[in-house]
Amino acid sequence: PTLIQHYRRAIVTAKGIASYAEIERNVFRPNNYFIEEASYPIPKLRFIEKPTCGKIFGDWLEIARSHTRAKFPPREIDESQKNAFLLNGYAKLYKVSGVLILVNATPQ
User: Fold this and answer.
1) CB 108 within 8 A of CB 11
2) Which residues pair with residue 17 across a beta bridge?
3) How far apart are CA 44 and CA 3, in angstroms?
4) Cβ atoms of residues 106 and 11 within 8 Å
5) Alpha-carbon distance 25 to 53, whole Å?
6) Under a CB-based contact definition with an 8 Å cutoff, are residues 35 and 45 in contact?
7) What are phi and psi of 23, to 5 degrees?
């Protein structure tokens, strides 16, 4: 394959260049998705097990009830939550002028 074809089979992440297989194994499958088509620039995803509306609502309700109701969002992400928030370390987090910016793993 050409250099361009090689890079279109990979994604540039916070951990470096990762194959679609690695991203599927470490990011998508733990979140109930699999890559249906490793298309460029964004892979086409499908649910492993399609959730019901009740399941989605129940998950969000559980999350909402488990957090304090602060007037403003936190300025920092707790160290114990960073791995999950940053897609198992594949996404980058930048702090710019007191604002947190999440940069997802993007295909290159």
Assistant:
1) yes
2) 12
3) 22
4) yes
5) 25
6) yes
7) -65, -40
Give 69 or 102, the one with higher predicted confidence: 69
pLDDT at 2: 63
Give one DSSP letter per residue of the chain, joined into a string: --HHHHHTTEEEETTEEEEHHHHIIIIIGGGTEEEEE--SSS-EEEESSPPPHHHHHHHHHHHHHHS---SS--SS--HHHHHHHTTTTTSEEEEETTEEEEE--EE-
Residue 106, token pair as written in the block: 């993007």
Angstrom distances, CA of residue 101 to CA of 47, 58, 78: 27, 28, 15
Residue 7 has pLDDT above 90, yes or no: no
pLDDT digits 0-9 by tens, 8-61: 678 888 999 899 999 999 999 999 999 998 887 788 999 999 999 999 999 999
